[in-house]
């Protein structure tokens, strides 16, 4: 199973990718995590940190090199889930060429759809432990003691890329650069849209149902209600 997860920042792609990856026994490849690791390196660190903290996109050539190295590892042979790549039409074209070289094809592209303003509030209320990295949310998953990690007692801080001004810049970038991928994959019959504004278990069940459709006759042709952007995505694209 070879999948791409699409959706705006904070929609829950990482959570759902990890759940599905564990069930299928394949790796969930989070480019966010890969980039955060690369941002600590001496070679790429300073330039990557400036881009990420400003809410921009990492250059395509850098992302493609990182992804190619990751897909070449043995654990990707049974399949993989890409979470956060591609993010531009240029990256999608590079991914197509990379998969062609590897004699592989995508099975489906899953789009998680949630209203933008709900996601902004979801992101700006996230907090992370400065000591152990545990994640919290001031509304849905608050710590027992305000400002302190339940696990280790470390100070909870807001990530630089979760500040509201940065979050809104991330959404602007998403609308401009990533939203065109919805039409790109819909035209190839790969897109499956899932309502992400549900409990985690319900979203997971909807993803399973969407993936089951790919095995039906004609699954590689756009289907009514499943082959293009939702009303929310279309409206965002005009914004």
The Cα radius of gyration reads 18 Å
Task: Spell out the helices and strands N to C.
Answer: EHEHHHEHEHEEEHHEHH
Question: How would a textbook summarize the main sheet?
Answer: 5 strands, parallel
Q: Enumerate the strands of the largest sheet in spatial order, edge to edge or round the barrel.
A: 2-3-1-4-8
Keywords: ATP-binding, Cytoplasm, Kinase, Metal-binding, Nucleotide biosynthesis, Nucleotide-binding, Transferase, Zinc
EC number: 2.7.4.3
Catalytic activity: AMP + ATP = 2 ADP
Region (Disordered): 217-239
Give a short overview.
InterPro entries: Adenyl_kin_sub, Adenylat/UMP-CMP_kin, Adenylat_kinase_CS, Adenylate_kinase_lid-dom, ADK_active_lid_dom_sf, P-loop_NTPase. Helices cover 44% and strands 13% of the residues.
